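Task: sequence design from structure.
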């Protein structure tokens, strides 16, 4: 019963839409508007819209890219910074060092020998603190300051195969 009612309502709505399309098609040839005036207004509006969006886009681009962390891995590196090489392999991390003092700035040189991995630094409550990609043949640098002592975890963030979920290594901050 309900299916028949829905079917009838659907047919009725399709008939109404079809009638509207036929009405518009039949009556569209009866009046000929002044296309040149309409076209001139439309082109003027498009030009204003284009320049407004372009200026807004440039302003938004400049404002939002100033806070990106890319510059933190370039330029001056403090004397007490520790560089740690992190190599992702299926399915483990190989670190040149896995312990630092609290307050130490660490620069992770991250790469991989096989497939793409994502290296994420997590605190003891598994909150993501920082991340970067590990890609074959390319070295990404991730600069992070461990302000609090504790046990952190470096975990893979990009599915890299069957044992992806085991790609976790502890990182100790004294």
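Answer:
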């Amino acid at each position: 019963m309900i299916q028949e009612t829905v079917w009838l309502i659907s047919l009725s709505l399709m008939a109404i839409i079809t009638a509207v399309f036929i009405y518009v098609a039949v009556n569209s040839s009866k009046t000929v508007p002044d296309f040149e005036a309409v076209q001139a207004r439309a082109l003027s509006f498009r030009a204003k819209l284009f320049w407004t969006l372009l200026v807004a886009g440039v302003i938004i681009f400049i404002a939002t890219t100033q806070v990106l962390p890319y510059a933190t891995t370039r330029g001056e590196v403090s004397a007490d910074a520790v560089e740690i090489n992190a190599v992702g392999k299926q399915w483990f991390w190989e670190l040149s060092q896995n312990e630092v003092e609290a307050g130490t700035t660490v620069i992770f040189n991250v790469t991989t020998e096989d497939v793409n991995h994502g290296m994420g630094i997590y605190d003891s409550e598994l909150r993501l603190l920082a991340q970067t990609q590990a890609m074959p043949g390319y070295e990404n640098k991730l600069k992070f300051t461990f302000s609090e002592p504790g046990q952190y975890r470096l975990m893979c963030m990009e599915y890299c195969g069957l044992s992806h979920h085991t790609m976790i290594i502890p990182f100790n901050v004294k």
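The two ends are 72 Å apart (CA to CA).
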